[in-house]
Amino acid sequence: MAKLGNPQETIQILQKHDFHFQKKFGQNFLIDTRVLDKIVEAAGVTEQDFVLEIGPGIGTMTQVLCERARQVLAVEIDNNLIPILKETLAEYKNVEILHGDILKQDIRQIAERYNGGKPIKIVANLPYYITTPIIMGLFESHVPLSNVTVMVQKEVAERMRAEPGTKECGALSLAVQYYAEPYLAANVPPNCFMPRPKVGSAVIRLDCLKRTSVEVKDERLMFRLIRASFNQRRKTLQNSLSNSCELDFSKEEIGKAIERAGFPPAIRGEKLGLKEFAALADELCRESEDGA
What we know:
The chain has helices spanning 7-16, 33-43, 60-68, 82-88, 107-115, 128-140, 154-160, 171-179, 219-231, 237-242, 251-260, 274-291, and strands at residues 29-30, 50-54, 71-76, 95-99, 120-125, 145-153, 180-188, 193-194, 201-208. Helices cover 42% and strands 18% of the residues.
């Protein structure tokens, strides 16, 4: 089977199988071998590694991963791509293709089965609409991860590594930085894909931390506070939190917790970093315990 990664080979295989792109899956296939190499190099894939690939498409990056890794599991949601993958990956004995939705897979069980429960590496080319649910699902379920190397919209990559207090910083920024250290590996222009997307993309590697970047009594509460703050980022922290249907604290309780955490009464949530949100969550926990 010819190596993929260029427009001619991609067009040929798509025509052979009469494949049509489906907008609902956000399909954009890579057609630049230099970018493929950058992704695999950024992930640090070696012959000792098991790699979980999310969204292999026609197998373009999967071929490169198979040549570098000990074993690859490629999870593809589009049933129409399964026969293509079986053809393009036929010569590789170290790959398994799984038809399914990654959000419905037990990643911990996959790590146990294929890697003896040790941390795994994940590589993915993710459509915009599914980026946050997949990445946060992986982190929040605390599955054993070494790193996650993903191709995402450039804007999303910039948000993941944005500093607190900047306009790019949001709930995703803080959530990613709680669990991992982001590293921008490459910017990728639209002409590296088929079909060509309207915006630029970027490869970002998330190096998973052995311990979360801050300690907090109630992780779930902290993330509820973060989401509520950024959902109404122009309001004061006290107002945005008291307006949230995710939280059941009174405005007075929130005000007291903000004061005890040492923040100005009129501060906005967008000015806080992880350390500050953790302190606020701990104060609200204490408020609940005192009131119990």
